[in-house]
Amino acid sequence: MAETLNGKIAAVTGAASGIGLATTEALIAAGATVVMVDRDERALGEITARLGDRAIAQTTDLLDTESCAQMVPEILAKTGRIDILHCNAGTYIGGDLTESDTATIDRMLTLNVNVVMKNVRDVIPHMIERGSGDIVVTASVAGHMPIQWEPVYSGSKWAITCFVQTMRRQLNKHGIRVGQVSPGPVISALLADWPPERLQAAKDSGSLIEPSEVSDAVVYMLTRSRNVTIRDMIVLPTNFDI
Ligand code: NAD
Protein backbone atom coordinates (compact mmCIF):
# COMPACT_ATOMS: atom_id res chain seq x y z
CA MET A 1 0.00 0.00 0.00
CA ALA A 2 1.27 3.47 -0.84
CA GLU A 3 2.46 5.60 2.07
CA THR A 4 0.73 8.84 2.81
CA LEU A 5 2.74 11.89 3.77
CA ASN A 6 -0.20 13.41 5.61
CA GLY A 7 0.97 14.58 9.02
CA LYS A 8 4.62 13.65 8.40
CA ILE A 9 7.40 15.97 9.55
CA ALA A 10 10.17 16.46 6.99
CA ALA A 11 13.40 18.43 7.16
CA VAL A 12 14.94 19.59 3.88
CA THR A 13 18.40 21.16 3.73
CA GLY A 14 19.19 23.75 1.10
CA ALA A 15 15.46 24.39 0.98
CA ALA A 16 15.44 28.04 -0.09
CA SER A 17 16.27 27.43 -3.75
CA GLY A 18 16.23 24.96 -6.62
CA ILE A 19 15.66 21.29 -5.82
CA GLY A 20 15.25 21.86 -2.08
CA LEU A 21 12.53 24.44 -2.62
CA ALA A 22 10.74 22.25 -5.16
CA THR A 23 10.91 19.29 -2.76
CA THR A 24 9.55 21.43 0.06
CA GLU A 25 6.61 22.51 -2.07
CA ALA A 26 5.94 18.94 -3.23
CA LEU A 27 6.09 17.51 0.29
CA ILE A 28 3.70 20.16 1.56
CA ALA A 29 1.35 19.46 -1.33
CA ALA A 30 1.49 15.78 -0.35
CA GLY A 31 0.45 16.60 3.22
CA ALA A 32 3.73 16.94 5.12
CA THR A 33 5.03 19.75 7.30
CA VAL A 34 8.52 20.82 6.25
CA VAL A 35 11.31 22.39 8.26
CA MET A 36 13.21 24.35 5.64
CA VAL A 37 16.90 24.49 6.55
CA ASP A 38 19.02 27.04 4.71
CA ARG A 39 21.57 29.74 5.40
CA ASP A 40 19.57 32.30 3.43
CA GLU A 41 17.41 33.78 6.18
CA ARG A 42 15.74 36.40 3.99
CA ALA A 43 14.68 33.89 1.34
CA LEU A 44 13.39 31.52 4.02
CA GLY A 45 11.29 34.31 5.52
CA GLU A 46 9.69 35.16 2.17
CA ILE A 47 9.10 31.53 1.21
CA THR A 48 7.59 30.41 4.52
CA ALA A 49 5.28 33.44 4.47
CA ARG A 50 4.10 32.33 1.03
CA LEU A 51 3.81 28.60 1.82
CA GLY A 52 1.91 28.95 5.11
CA ASP A 53 1.85 27.07 8.43
CA ARG A 54 3.29 23.82 7.14
CA ALA A 55 6.57 25.49 6.12
CA ILE A 56 8.87 26.24 9.06
CA ALA A 57 12.05 28.25 8.58
CA GLN A 58 15.31 27.21 10.16
CA THR A 59 18.29 29.40 9.39
CA THR A 60 21.45 27.31 9.65
CA ASP A 61 24.81 27.70 7.95
CA LEU A 62 25.73 24.06 7.56
CA LEU A 63 29.37 24.96 6.96
CA ASP A 64 29.55 26.34 10.48
CA THR A 65 30.50 23.32 12.60
CA GLU A 66 28.53 24.34 15.69
CA SER A 67 25.42 25.36 13.73
CA CYS A 68 25.54 22.09 11.81
CA ALA A 69 25.72 20.14 15.09
CA GLN A 70 22.65 22.00 16.35
CA MET A 71 20.53 21.36 13.26
CA VAL A 72 18.80 18.14 14.31
CA PRO A 73 18.33 19.15 17.99
CA GLU A 74 16.83 22.47 16.89
CA ILE A 75 14.41 20.77 14.50
CA LEU A 76 13.37 18.30 17.20
CA ALA A 77 12.84 21.19 19.64
CA LYS A 78 10.47 22.77 17.10
CA THR A 79 8.57 19.72 15.89
CA GLY A 80 9.15 16.85 18.34
CA ARG A 81 10.05 14.42 15.59
CA ILE A 82 11.58 13.97 12.14
CA ASP A 83 9.97 11.41 9.84
CA ILE A 84 11.87 12.41 6.71
CA LEU A 85 15.32 13.96 6.33
CA HIS A 86 16.22 15.19 2.85
CA CYS A 87 19.94 16.01 2.78
CA ASN A 88 19.98 18.21 -0.26
CA ALA A 89 22.24 21.23 0.36
CA GLY A 90 25.27 21.12 -1.86
CA THR A 91 27.56 23.21 -3.93
CA TYR A 92 29.34 22.89 -7.25
CA ILE A 93 32.62 23.71 -8.88
CA GLY A 94 33.80 22.55 -12.25
CA GLY A 95 37.07 23.12 -14.03
CA ASP A 96 40.46 21.47 -13.90
CA LEU A 97 41.71 20.33 -10.53
CA THR A 98 44.75 22.55 -10.92
CA GLU A 99 42.44 25.57 -11.18
CA SER A 100 40.57 24.71 -7.95
CA ASP A 101 41.85 26.55 -4.91
CA THR A 102 42.14 24.81 -1.55
CA ALA A 103 39.35 26.73 0.17
CA THR A 104 36.91 25.89 -2.61
CA ILE A 105 37.78 22.19 -2.57
CA ASP A 106 37.47 22.10 1.22
CA ARG A 107 34.13 23.92 1.16
CA MET A 108 32.65 21.63 -1.45
CA LEU A 109 33.76 18.39 0.16
CA THR A 110 32.56 19.65 3.55
CA LEU A 111 29.08 20.60 2.32
CA ASN A 112 28.56 17.78 -0.19
CA VAL A 113 30.01 14.99 1.94
CA ASN A 114 30.87 15.74 5.58
CA VAL A 115 27.72 17.71 6.38
CA VAL A 116 25.50 14.98 4.92
CA MET A 117 27.28 12.35 7.03
CA LYS A 118 26.91 14.49 10.16
CA ASN A 119 23.23 15.29 9.55
CA VAL A 120 22.48 11.58 8.97
CA ARG A 121 24.50 10.58 12.05
CA ASP A 122 22.60 13.07 14.19
CA VAL A 123 19.12 11.95 13.09
CA ILE A 124 19.72 8.18 13.30
CA PRO A 125 19.29 7.72 17.09
CA HIS A 126 15.93 9.50 16.90
CA MET A 127 14.72 7.39 13.98
CA ILE A 128 16.02 4.15 15.51
CA GLU A 129 14.20 4.94 18.75
CA ARG A 130 10.98 5.39 16.78
CA GLY A 131 11.67 2.34 14.58
CA SER A 132 10.89 4.32 11.44
CA GLY A 133 12.16 7.06 9.18
CA ASP A 134 13.19 8.02 5.69
CA ILE A 135 16.46 9.59 4.61
CA VAL A 136 16.93 10.85 1.06
CA VAL A 137 20.16 12.38 -0.20
CA THR A 138 20.48 14.51 -3.31
CA ALA A 139 23.49 13.02 -5.08
CA SER A 140 24.05 13.55 -8.80
CA VAL A 141 24.50 11.71 -12.04
CA ALA A 142 28.09 12.85 -11.49
CA GLY A 143 28.14 10.31 -8.65
CA HIS A 144 27.54 7.52 -11.15
CA MET A 145 29.75 8.44 -14.06
CA PRO A 146 32.98 10.41 -14.02
CA ILE A 147 32.37 13.78 -15.66
CA GLN A 148 35.71 14.92 -16.92
CA TRP A 149 35.30 18.66 -16.44
CA GLU A 150 34.17 18.41 -12.82
CA PRO A 151 36.58 16.09 -10.97
CA VAL A 152 36.09 17.53 -7.47
CA TYR A 153 32.30 17.65 -7.74
CA SER A 154 32.16 14.14 -9.21
CA GLY A 155 34.46 12.92 -6.44
CA SER A 156 32.20 14.41 -3.76
CA LYS A 157 29.08 12.82 -5.26
CA TRP A 158 30.71 9.39 -5.68
CA ALA A 159 31.70 9.57 -2.01
CA ILE A 160 28.20 10.37 -0.85
CA THR A 161 26.67 7.75 -3.14
CA CYS A 162 28.84 5.10 -1.49
CA PHE A 163 27.90 6.44 1.96
CA VAL A 164 24.19 6.25 1.14
CA GLN A 165 24.47 2.63 0.00
CA THR A 166 26.27 1.60 3.19
CA MET A 167 23.81 3.43 5.44
CA ARG A 168 20.89 1.86 3.60
CA ARG A 169 22.21 -1.60 4.41
CA GLN A 170 22.89 -0.71 8.07
CA LEU A 171 19.59 1.02 8.78
CA ASN A 172 17.22 -1.29 6.95
CA LYS A 173 16.82 -3.50 10.04
CA HIS A 174 15.64 -0.48 12.05
CA GLY A 175 12.79 0.32 9.68
CA ILE A 176 14.68 3.28 8.23
CA ARG A 177 14.79 3.61 4.46
CA VAL A 178 17.79 5.36 2.91
CA GLY A 179 17.80 6.36 -0.73
CA GLN A 180 19.11 8.98 -3.06
CA VAL A 181 18.04 10.98 -6.04
CA SER A 182 20.66 11.59 -8.71
CA PRO A 183 19.75 14.38 -11.11
CA GLY A 184 21.38 15.40 -14.33
CA PRO A 185 21.61 19.15 -15.02
CA VAL A 186 18.79 21.04 -13.29
CA ILE A 187 17.82 24.65 -13.93
CA SER A 188 18.82 26.28 -10.63
CA ALA A 189 21.12 28.89 -9.13
CA LEU A 190 23.81 26.24 -8.94
CA LEU A 191 24.28 26.37 -12.70
CA ALA A 192 25.50 29.96 -12.37
CA ASP A 193 28.87 28.33 -11.68
CA TRP A 194 28.86 26.51 -15.02
CA PRO A 195 31.08 27.92 -17.77
CA PRO A 196 28.77 30.22 -19.82
CA GLU A 197 29.39 28.34 -23.08
CA ARG A 198 28.43 25.00 -21.47
CA LEU A 199 25.27 26.52 -20.00
CA GLN A 200 24.28 28.04 -23.32
CA ALA A 201 24.88 24.75 -25.15
CA ALA A 202 22.73 22.88 -22.61
CA LYS A 203 19.94 25.45 -22.96
CA ASP A 204 20.15 25.33 -26.75
CA SER A 205 19.89 21.54 -26.82
CA GLY A 206 17.10 21.43 -24.23
CA SER A 207 19.18 19.20 -21.97
CA LEU A 208 18.21 20.73 -18.63
CA ILE A 209 15.44 19.56 -16.33
CA GLU A 210 13.25 21.46 -13.88
CA PRO A 211 13.65 21.19 -10.09
CA SER A 212 10.06 19.90 -9.92
CA GLU A 213 11.07 16.89 -12.02
CA VAL A 214 13.54 15.95 -9.28
CA SER A 215 11.10 16.62 -6.44
CA ASP A 216 8.52 14.40 -8.19
CA ALA A 217 11.05 11.57 -7.91
CA VAL A 218 11.64 12.28 -4.22
CA VAL A 219 7.92 12.19 -3.44
CA TYR A 220 7.59 8.99 -5.48
CA MET A 221 10.32 7.35 -3.37
CA LEU A 222 8.78 8.47 -0.11
CA THR A 223 5.25 7.36 -0.95
CA ARG A 224 6.09 3.75 -1.85
CA SER A 225 4.93 1.03 0.51
CA ARG A 226 7.38 0.60 3.40
CA ASN A 227 8.16 -2.87 2.00
CA VAL A 228 10.04 -1.05 -0.75
CA THR A 229 13.17 1.07 -0.65
CA ILE A 230 14.00 2.89 -3.86
CA ARG A 231 17.79 2.99 -3.70
CA ASP A 232 18.40 5.59 -6.32
CA MET A 233 16.41 7.50 -8.88
CA ILE A 234 18.53 8.91 -11.69
CA VAL A 235 16.59 11.79 -13.24
CA LEU A 236 17.99 12.92 -16.58
CA PRO A 237 16.93 15.07 -19.50
CA THR A 238 15.75 12.73 -22.25
CA ASN A 239 18.56 13.79 -24.56
CA PHE A 240 21.29 13.62 -21.89
CA ASP A 241 24.43 12.53 -23.69
CA ILE A 242 27.64 12.53 -21.65
P1 NAD B 1 20.75 25.82 -5.51
O1 NAD B 1 22.01 26.60 -5.52
O2 NAD B 1 19.58 26.28 -6.30
O3 NAD B 1 20.26 25.62 -4.01
C1 NAD B 1 21.16 25.29 -2.97
C2 NAD B 1 20.60 25.82 -1.65
O4 NAD B 1 21.51 25.42 -0.63
C3 NAD B 1 20.51 27.35 -1.59
O5 NAD B 1 19.25 27.75 -1.08
C4 NAD B 1 21.63 27.74 -0.65
O6 NAD B 1 21.36 28.92 0.11
C5 NAD B 1 21.72 26.51 0.24
N1 NAD B 1 23.03 26.41 0.86
C6 NAD B 1 24.22 26.51 0.24
N2 NAD B 1 25.20 26.44 1.16
C7 NAD B 1 24.61 26.28 2.37
C8 NAD B 1 25.09 26.17 3.69
N3 NAD B 1 26.40 26.24 3.97
N4 NAD B 1 24.21 26.01 4.69
C9 NAD B 1 22.88 25.98 4.44
N5 NAD B 1 22.36 26.11 3.21
C10 NAD B 1 23.22 26.25 2.18
O7 NAD B 1 21.20 24.36 -5.95
P2 NAD B 1 20.40 23.08 -6.46
O8 NAD B 1 20.68 22.92 -7.89
O9 NAD B 1 19.01 23.07 -5.98
O10 NAD B 1 21.24 21.94 -5.71
C11 NAD B 1 20.73 21.17 -4.65
C12 NAD B 1 21.47 19.85 -4.63
O11 NAD B 1 21.29 19.21 -5.89
C13 NAD B 1 22.99 19.95 -4.42
O12 NAD B 1 23.41 18.92 -3.56
C14 NAD B 1 23.55 19.73 -5.81
O13 NAD B 1 24.85 19.19 -5.80
C15 NAD B 1 22.54 18.74 -6.36
N6 NAD B 1 22.49 18.67 -7.82
C16 NAD B 1 22.23 19.77 -8.56
C17 NAD B 1 22.23 19.67 -9.95
C18 NAD B 1 22.00 20.87 -10.84
O14 NAD B 1 22.28 20.79 -12.04
N7 NAD B 1 21.47 21.99 -10.32
C19 NAD B 1 22.45 18.44 -10.55
C20 NAD B 1 22.69 17.33 -9.76
C21 NAD B 1 22.70 17.45 -8.38
UniProtKB/TrEMBL annotation:
PROSITE patterns: ADH_SHORT. CDD domains: SDR_c. Pfam families: adh_short. InterPro entries: NAD(P)-bd_dom_sf, Sc_DH/Rdtase_CS, SDR_fam. It comes from the Bacteria. Belongs to the short-chain dehydrogenases/reductases (SDR) family. This is SDR family oxidoreductase. The lineage of its organism: Bacteria, Pseudomonadati, Pseudomonadota, Alphaproteobacteria, Hyphomicrobiales.
